[in-house]
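Hi all, posting the design record for the shared folder.

TITLE: backbone redesign
STEP: 1 of 1
STRUCTURE INPUT:
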Protein backbone atom coordinates (compact mmCIF):
# COMPACT_ATOMS: atom_id res chain seq x y z
CA UNK A 1 0.00 0.00 0.00
CA UNK A 2 1.91 2.93 0.75
CA UNK A 3 1.44 3.48 4.11
CA UNK A 4 1.04 5.89 3.88
CA UNK A 5 0.47 9.34 3.88
CA UNK A 6 -0.13 9.38 7.55
CA UNK A 7 3.10 7.57 8.30
CA UNK A 8 5.19 9.55 5.85
CA UNK A 9 3.69 12.80 7.05
CA UNK A 10 4.56 11.93 10.64
CA UNK A 11 8.09 11.07 9.57
CA UNK A 12 8.41 14.50 7.99
CA UNK A 13 7.35 15.94 11.33
CA UNK A 14 10.03 13.87 13.06
CA UNK A 15 12.74 15.23 10.78
CA UNK A 16 11.82 18.90 11.07
CA UNK A 17 9.90 19.13 14.35
CA UNK A 18 10.94 20.03 17.90
CA UNK A 19 13.45 18.15 20.01
CA UNK A 20 12.94 14.62 21.31
CA UNK A 21 10.65 14.18 24.31
CA UNK A 22 11.94 11.23 26.41
CA UNK A 23 8.43 10.42 27.70
CA UNK A 24 7.03 10.15 24.17
CA UNK A 25 10.07 8.17 23.06
CA UNK A 26 9.41 5.68 25.87
CA UNK A 27 5.73 5.52 24.91
CA UNK A 28 6.73 4.53 21.37
CA UNK A 29 9.11 1.89 22.69
CA UNK A 30 6.31 0.49 24.86
CA UNK A 31 4.07 0.11 21.81
CA UNK A 32 6.85 -1.65 19.93
CA UNK A 33 7.61 -3.83 22.95
CA UNK A 34 4.26 -5.60 22.84
CA UNK A 35 4.03 -8.66 20.60
CA UNK A 36 1.45 -11.34 19.88
CA UNK A 37 1.92 -15.06 19.32
CA UNK A 38 -1.35 -15.30 17.39
CA UNK A 39 -1.31 -16.78 13.89
CA UNK A 40 -3.70 -15.84 11.07
CA UNK A 41 -4.34 -17.84 7.90
CA UNK A 42 -5.94 -16.23 4.87
CA UNK A 43 -8.42 -18.17 2.81
CA UNK A 44 -8.59 -17.21 -0.83
CA UNK A 45 -6.80 -14.19 -2.27
CA UNK A 46 -6.71 -10.59 -1.09
CA UNK A 47 -8.33 -8.00 -3.35
CA UNK A 48 -9.56 -5.41 -0.89
CA UNK A 49 -9.97 -4.98 2.89
CA UNK A 50 -12.96 -6.30 4.78
CA UNK A 51 -16.09 -4.08 4.90
CA UNK A 52 -15.78 -1.08 7.20
CA UNK A 53 -17.52 -1.19 10.58
CA UNK A 54 -17.62 1.09 13.57
CA UNK A 55 -15.17 -0.16 16.21
CA UNK A 56 -12.41 -1.35 13.85
CA UNK A 57 -8.88 -0.08 14.46
CA UNK A 58 -5.27 -0.64 13.42
CA UNK A 59 -2.09 0.40 15.22
CA UNK A 60 1.00 0.71 13.02
CA UNK A 61 4.59 1.56 13.80
CA UNK A 62 7.11 3.01 11.35
CA UNK A 63 10.90 2.98 11.60
CA UNK A 64 12.79 5.50 9.49
CA UNK A 65 16.48 4.62 9.92
CA UNK A 66 16.10 4.30 13.67
CA UNK A 67 13.52 7.05 14.17
CA UNK A 68 10.26 5.46 15.21
CA UNK A 69 6.68 6.73 15.10
CA UNK A 70 3.27 5.20 15.78
CA UNK A 71 -0.08 5.76 14.05
CA UNK A 72 -3.54 4.51 15.00
CA UNK A 73 -6.54 4.63 12.67
CA UNK A 74 -9.96 3.95 14.20
CA UNK A 75 -13.55 4.01 12.98
CA UNK A 76 -15.43 5.66 15.83
CA UNK A 77 -18.86 6.46 14.39
CA UNK A 78 -21.22 7.06 11.47
CA UNK A 79 -22.90 10.30 10.50
CA UNK A 80 -24.68 11.70 7.43
CA UNK A 81 -24.02 8.48 5.51
CA UNK A 82 -20.27 8.67 6.15
CA UNK A 83 -17.69 7.28 8.54
CA UNK A 84 -16.08 9.12 11.42
CA UNK A 85 -12.40 8.20 11.51
CA UNK A 86 -10.06 9.10 14.33
CA UNK A 87 -6.34 9.40 13.57
CA UNK A 88 -3.68 9.37 16.27
CA UNK A 89 0.00 9.93 15.56
CA UNK A 90 2.90 9.70 17.98
CA UNK A 91 6.45 10.78 17.23
CA UNK A 92 9.46 11.28 19.46
CA UNK A 93 8.53 14.96 19.72
CA UNK A 94 4.73 15.19 19.75
CA UNK A 95 1.30 13.57 19.75
CA UNK A 96 -1.56 14.52 17.42
CA UNK A 97 -5.24 13.60 17.36
CA UNK A 98 -7.85 14.41 14.74
CA UNK A 99 -11.20 13.15 13.57
CA UNK A 100 -12.77 13.36 10.12
CA UNK A 101 -16.24 12.66 8.80
CA UNK A 102 -15.52 10.97 5.46
CA UNK A 103 -18.10 10.17 2.78
CA UNK A 104 -17.64 8.18 -0.44
CA UNK A 105 -14.77 6.01 0.77
CA UNK A 106 -16.26 2.75 -0.48
CA UNK A 107 -16.86 4.23 -3.93
CA UNK A 108 -13.31 5.57 -4.02
CA UNK A 109 -11.95 2.13 -3.21
CA UNK A 110 -13.93 0.64 -6.07
CA UNK A 111 -12.95 3.29 -8.63
CA UNK A 112 -9.44 3.99 -7.21
CA UNK A 113 -10.34 7.67 -7.52
CA UNK A 114 -9.73 9.87 -4.46
CA UNK A 115 -12.02 12.52 -5.97
CA UNK A 116 -14.94 10.34 -4.87
CA UNK A 117 -14.07 11.11 -1.24
CA UNK A 118 -15.65 14.06 0.53
CA UNK A 119 -14.44 15.33 3.89
CA UNK A 120 -17.41 16.93 5.65
CA UNK A 121 -15.61 18.16 8.77
CA UNK A 122 -12.35 17.87 10.67
CA UNK A 123 -11.81 18.14 14.42
CA UNK A 124 -8.38 18.53 16.00
CA UNK A 125 -7.35 18.01 19.62
CA UNK A 126 -4.17 19.62 20.88
CA UNK A 127 -1.84 18.38 23.62
CA UNK A 128 -3.77 20.37 26.22
CA UNK A 129 -7.06 18.70 25.28
CA UNK A 130 -8.53 21.69 23.45
CA UNK A 131 -10.67 20.76 20.43
CA UNK A 132 -11.10 22.92 17.35
CA UNK A 133 -13.31 22.29 14.31
CA UNK A 134 -12.52 22.91 10.65
CA UNK A 135 -15.39 23.14 8.19
CA UNK A 136 -16.93 25.48 5.65
CA UNK A 137 -14.60 27.72 3.63
CA UNK A 138 -11.51 26.91 5.69
CA UNK A 139 -12.01 23.20 5.07
CA UNK A 140 -12.61 23.80 1.36
CA UNK A 141 -9.25 25.50 1.08
CA UNK A 142 -7.40 22.71 2.92
CA UNK A 143 -9.38 19.68 1.72
CA UNK A 144 -6.71 18.62 -0.78
CA UNK A 145 -4.11 18.40 1.99
CA UNK A 146 -6.41 16.36 4.20
CA UNK A 147 -7.24 14.00 1.34
CA UNK A 148 -3.54 13.19 1.01
CA UNK A 149 -3.56 11.87 4.57
CA UNK A 150 -6.34 9.45 3.55
CA UNK A 151 -4.40 7.73 0.81
CA UNK A 152 -3.66 4.79 3.09
CA UNK A 153 -7.42 4.11 3.03
CA UNK A 154 -7.63 4.14 -0.77
CA UNK A 155 -5.63 1.17 -2.03
CA UNK A 156 -3.94 1.29 -5.42
CA UNK A 157 -2.30 -2.11 -5.67
CA UNK A 158 -0.19 -3.28 -8.61
CA UNK A 159 2.10 -6.21 -9.40
CA UNK A 160 0.49 -8.50 -6.84
CA UNK A 161 1.84 -11.89 -5.83
CA UNK A 162 1.89 -14.43 -2.99
CA UNK A 163 3.63 -12.73 -0.07
CA UNK A 164 4.02 -15.86 2.03
CA UNK A 165 4.25 -15.68 5.82
CA UNK A 166 4.98 -12.35 7.52
CA UNK A 167 5.61 -11.95 11.25
CA UNK A 168 5.13 -8.55 12.88
CA UNK A 169 4.37 -7.49 16.48
CA UNK A 170 0.63 -8.04 15.85
CA UNK A 171 1.24 -11.74 15.05
CA UNK A 172 2.12 -14.11 12.23
CA UNK A 173 0.14 -13.74 9.03
CA UNK A 174 0.13 -16.68 6.62
CA UNK A 175 -0.73 -16.45 2.93
CA UNK A 176 -0.26 -12.68 2.63
CA UNK A 177 -0.71 -10.77 -0.60
CA UNK A 178 2.32 -8.70 -1.68
CA UNK A 179 1.90 -5.71 -3.96
CA UNK A 180 3.41 -2.42 -4.98
CA UNK A 181 1.59 0.63 -3.64
CA UNK A 182 2.03 4.35 -3.94
CA UNK A 183 1.10 7.47 -2.02
CA UNK A 184 1.53 11.19 -2.56
CA UNK A 185 2.60 13.35 0.38
CA UNK A 186 3.20 17.08 0.06
CA UNK A 187 3.40 16.69 -3.72
CA UNK A 188 5.94 13.86 -3.63
CA UNK A 189 5.16 10.27 -4.64
CA UNK A 190 6.40 7.35 -2.55
CA UNK A 191 6.24 3.67 -3.55
CA UNK A 192 6.52 0.63 -1.32
CA UNK A 193 6.37 -3.13 -1.25
CA UNK A 194 3.45 -3.97 1.01
CA UNK A 195 1.94 -7.15 2.46
CA UNK A 196 -1.80 -7.48 3.09
CA UNK A 197 -4.07 -9.91 4.88
CA UNK A 198 -7.85 -10.30 4.90
CA UNK A 199 -8.01 -10.53 8.72
CA UNK A 200 -6.71 -6.98 9.13
CA UNK A 201 -9.43 -4.27 9.06
CA UNK A 202 -9.53 -0.79 7.52
CA UNK A 203 -6.60 -1.04 5.08
CA UNK A 204 -5.54 -4.70 5.37
CA UNK A 205 -1.86 -3.83 5.69
CA UNK A 206 0.52 -6.05 7.67
CA UNK A 207 3.86 -4.56 6.61
CA UNK A 208 5.32 -2.07 4.13
CA UNK A 209 8.89 -1.31 3.09
CA UNK A 210 9.78 1.75 1.03
CA UNK A 211 11.60 1.16 -2.25
CA UNK A 212 14.81 2.60 -0.81
CA UNK A 213 14.50 0.37 2.27
CA UNK A 214 14.70 3.31 4.66
CA UNK A 215 11.13 3.21 5.98
CA UNK A 216 9.66 0.00 7.44
CA UNK A 217 6.06 0.03 8.67
CA UNK A 218 4.61 -2.86 10.67
CA UNK A 219 1.26 -3.73 12.20
CA UNK A 220 1.65 -3.49 15.97
CA UNK A 221 -1.91 -4.42 16.91
CA UNK A 222 -5.48 -4.33 15.57
CA UNK A 223 -9.07 -5.00 16.49
CA UNK A 224 -12.42 -5.57 14.83
CA UNK A 225 -14.33 -3.94 17.69
CA UNK A 226 -13.70 -1.60 20.58
CA UNK A 227 -12.68 1.68 18.95
CA UNK A 228 -14.35 4.71 20.51
CA UNK A 229 -13.84 8.46 20.30
CA UNK A 230 -11.11 9.86 22.50
CA UNK A 231 -12.67 13.34 22.32
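Okay, here is what came back for every position:
SEQUENCE:
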Amino acid sequence: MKYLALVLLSLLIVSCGPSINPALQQKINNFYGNSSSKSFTMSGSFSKPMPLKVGQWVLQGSNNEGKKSVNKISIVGQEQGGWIFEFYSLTESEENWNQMLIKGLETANETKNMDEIDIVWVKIKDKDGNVSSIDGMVLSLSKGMYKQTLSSLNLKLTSGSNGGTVTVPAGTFNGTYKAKAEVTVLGRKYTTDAWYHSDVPINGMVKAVSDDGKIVTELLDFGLTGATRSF
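COMMENT: Residues 4-16 form the longest helix (13 residues).
Let me know if anyone wants the other runs.
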